[in-house]
């Protein structure tokens, strides 16, 4: 739709309306009468409609953006991101910038900070010269060391602790009561007494004076020990009546340790074994061992030649002098009530008998917590069979059972159908909805083909060009047919009454295939041929020859 020019009234000098005329380009309507007070043309992109500088008309132009900070959306609780934007003026050009630009500005500019606190845990301070520090040196003892410098000698120290080792005055000790290890050779020949909780020496130690060891245990972890002393005194300092066994204990690993020494309670020397160690004290429990040695000296008694005991003893009611073996009857035992005898009838209490290591027999069902086995059938009918009783599994029609040792065989004859057997079923009904029938050949079916309109198709076969006989296809809807029926496909003819109506009063014509279609010849034109007895063209040719001859005769006179 094109632009239209508005109509205005035309006034004479007396300000009387004399007619109507179209608005001209210089004509305007004042603001007081609803106009814009100016001849307005469209502005440029980005301009807005605004009041002119004289406040007398409207015009297009640019205006400065005004942001009301107080009424803007409150973002004081929002965490700022480097992509957030803000307004900025760049030499008179207003626009927007991101906080990332501000970060780039300050990170690349050298500034002097005043009255600022910088967190050392959240910031990395680097390249700070000692001259910029209020304190740039550390005094250890009386030795001052500048930051970045080093000193191998420290003077004026009164106490030094390294790990758990403390050096104070002339004392070296550990602060956690552990051993103090000295890994280098130390010469203390000119020093006085050394007082310490313990000293570990990894090198050789040579002691030219006496060695006194005070403590509960002295451990010597060497492969072999050589001692030039001819006498070794055990239990030094013992006074008064002696107590506790003393001697040499031999550690034997997982076997009992060996002992060679003096049994103080028996007042005899003894050789034997036990579970004691070198830290055991008092009377030791010693199993007498065997001493292999040649003994020389005075032996009292008849141990060398005696065949009987010097004094016969009675063992469980039987006299024993060592000359022969004795038999102890169960009745000779002093406490038979606490002993289970093979030949006596007793009641055991709180005893566990292993069935795998013992044979239990003649245990009556009444002595068992469970003395029956419950067997149930598919209908939940259950029967309890007592232990020791029999249970018979009977066969049925076509099913037999047989036993062979500990095995039972359930067999079927030809009257029972199984999953793996090949059988011929008679008078059976198989539900097609509950079973899957497969690989059934057409020869096994009573009816194995389908006949449509005289065409027989076997199940599984196909006929892509069936010649149907639709004589009995009464009321068969023509909408179900598609494509074109050719003359070759028709065994007979189709009555005109069965054909679709053609164009009214037109002649039919057949093509090269014998198909019939409507021609442009009308019924009226066909009527003109009625009564024609010979070829029309021949008749026309003959008529043309006679008329031409007459015409020539007339023309020539």
Helices, strands, pairings?
Blueprint: E1 7-11, E2 17-22, E3 48-51, E4 58-61, E5 85-90, E6 93-98, H1 99-107, E7 137-140, E8 143-146, E9 159-162, E10 165-168, E11 171-174, E12 180-182, E13 199-201, E14 246-250, E15 257-263, E16 268-274, E17 287-288, E18 313-315, E19 318-320, E20 372-376, E21 382-386, E22 399-404, E23 407-412, E24 449-452, E25 455-458, E26 506-510, E27 516-522, H2 523-527, H3 536-556
Parallel strand pairs: 12-13
Antiparallel strand pairs: 1-2, 3-4, 5-6, 7-8, 9-10, 10-11, 14-15, 15-16, 16-17, 18-19, 20-21, 22-23, 24-25, 26-27
How would you explain this protein's 3D organization?
This protein is mostly beta strands. It is built from three helices and 27 strands. The strands form twelve sheets. It has a four-stranded antiparallel beta sheet with strand order 14-15-16-17, with no helix packed on it. A three-stranded antiparallel beta sheet has the order 9-10-11, with no helix packed on it. The radius of gyration is 67 Å and the shape is flat.
Q: Average the pLDDT over all residues and give the rounded result.
A: 78
Helical residues, percent: under 10%
- Biggest pleated-sheet summary: 4 strands, antiparallel
Radius of gyration: 67 Å
N- to C-terminal distance: 79 Å
Give the quaternary arrangement of the chains.
Answer: single chain
What form results from the Cα inertia axes?
flat
Strand content: 15-25%
- Unreliable stretches (pLDDT < 50, length at least 5) are none
Structure class:
mainly beta
- Helix count equals 3
Count of beta strands: 27
**Helix/strand order, N-terminal first:** EEEEEEHEEEEEEEEEEEEEEEEEEEEEHH
Strand order of the largest sheet: 14-15-16-17
């Amino acid at each position: 739709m094109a632009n239209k020019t508005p109509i205005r009234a035309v006034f004479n000098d007396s300000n009387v309306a004399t007619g109507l005329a179209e608005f001209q380009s210089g004509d305007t309507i004042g603001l007081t009468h609803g106009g814009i007070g100016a001849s307005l043309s469209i502005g440029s992109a980005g301009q807005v409609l605004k009041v002119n500088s004289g406040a007398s008309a409207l015009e297009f132009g640019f205006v400065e953006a005004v942001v009301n900070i107080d009424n803007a959306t409150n973002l004081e609780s929002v965490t700022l991101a480097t992509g957030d934007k803000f307004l900025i003026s760049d030499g008179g050009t207003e626009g927007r910038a991101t906080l990332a630009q501000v970060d780039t500005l300050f990170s690349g500019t050298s500034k002097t900070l005043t009255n600022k606190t910088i967190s050392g845990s959240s910031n990395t301070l680097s390249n700070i010269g000692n001259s910029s520090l209020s304190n740039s040196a550390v005094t250890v003892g009386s030795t001052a060391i500048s930051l970045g410098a080093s000193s191998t000698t420290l003077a004026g120290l009164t106490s030094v602790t390294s790990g758990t080792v403390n050096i104070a005055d002339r004392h070296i000790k550990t602060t956690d009561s552990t051993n103090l290890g000295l890994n280098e050779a130390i010469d203390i020949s000119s020093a006085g007494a050394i007082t310490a909780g313990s000293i570990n020496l990894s090198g050789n130690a040579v002691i030219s004076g006496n060695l006194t060891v005070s403590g509960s245990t002295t451990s010597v972890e060497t492969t072999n020990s050589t001692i030039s002393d001819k006498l070794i005194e055990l239990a030094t300092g013992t006074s008064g009546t002696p107590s506790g066994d003393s001697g040499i204990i031999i550690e034997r690993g997982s076997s009992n340790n060996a002992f060679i020494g003096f049994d103080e309670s028996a007042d005899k020397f003894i050789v034997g074994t036990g579970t004691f160690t070198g830290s055991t004290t008092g009377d030791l429990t010693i199993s007498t061992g065997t001493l292999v040695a040649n003994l020389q000296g005075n032996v009292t008694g008849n141990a060398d030649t005696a065949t009987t005991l010097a004094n016969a003893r009675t063992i469980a009611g039987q006299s024993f002098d060592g000359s022969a073996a004795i038999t102890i009857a169960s009745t000779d035992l002093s406490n038979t009530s606490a002993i289970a005898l093979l030949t006596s009838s007793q009641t055991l209490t709180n005893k566990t008998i292993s069935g795998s290591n013992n044979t239990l027999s003649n245990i009556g069902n009444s002595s068992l917590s469970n003395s029956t086995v419950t067997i149930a059938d598919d209908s939940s009918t259950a029967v309890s069979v007592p232990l020791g009783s029999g249970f018979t599994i009977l066969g049925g029609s076509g099913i037999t059972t047989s036993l062979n040792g500990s095995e039972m065989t359930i067999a079927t004859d030809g009257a029972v159908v199984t999953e793996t057997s090949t059988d011929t079923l008679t008078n059976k009904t198989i539900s097609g909805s509950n079973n899957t029938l497969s690989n059934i050949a057409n020869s096994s079916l009573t009816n194995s083909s389908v006949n449509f309109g005289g065409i027989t198709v076997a199940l599984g076969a196909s006929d892509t060009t069936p010649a149907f006989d639709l004589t009995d296809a009464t009321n068969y809807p023509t909408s179900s047919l598609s494509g074109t029926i050719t003359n070759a496909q028709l065994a007979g003819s189709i009555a005109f009454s069965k054909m679709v109506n053609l164009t009214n009063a037109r002649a039919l014509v057949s093509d090269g295939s014998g198909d019939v279609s409507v021609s442009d010849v009308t019924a009226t034109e066909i009527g003109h041929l009625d009564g024609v007895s010979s070829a029309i063209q021949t008749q026309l040719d003959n008529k043309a020859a006679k008329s031409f001859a007459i015409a020539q005769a007339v023309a020539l006179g």
